[in-house]
Amino acid sequence: MRTQTKETQQNITPKIAHEILVNGNKRFVQNLRSMRNLQDQVIATSEGQYPFAVVLSCIDSRVPAELVFDQGIGDIFSVRVAGNVVNEDILGSIEYGCKVAGSKIVVVLGHTKCGAVTAACKQVELGNITALLSKIQPAVQQIDQEKTNAIEETSIVNVAHSIERIRNESPILADMEKNGEIEIVGASYDVSTGIVQFL
What percent of the chain has pLDDT over 70? Predict the structure, then answer.
């Protein structure tokens, strides 16, 4: 697999970017990873980077975006924070990835068995974690927490809430999406199967 260049990035549409990620996850699930020379990619990207995607995901150690989408060095911007929540710094990072560096898709990637979502559902309060979990509370409030699969449903709603915040709080990204320059989409990773389901 070759490293992204300015030319290859420019030729990728949001739709193609989406397909690249879907196909990459299929390879990951089937354990058919693309052959890459990581040292070559280090050298190729040393003078510049042209990622085609921005992935906002949780810090969970089981969900490394580059691996689950079978991407290499220089392919994606990986933005990670517990609970894949949005704040000013996250928005600035995504805006940089798309408006400045040319990425064509923003994926908000939640996952099953999320510790941050579980903690938010249980109303955990602890140091700075309290403020972080408060950003998940709007999703918690939308789901009946007595349901058997409440945590998984809350995780999905939390992804939708993060996307809503991106659109509402970043005029730059909202305009890019409206103009067809980028796609903003949600997804969920199953930690038991490795499968990413786009929402």
Answer: 99
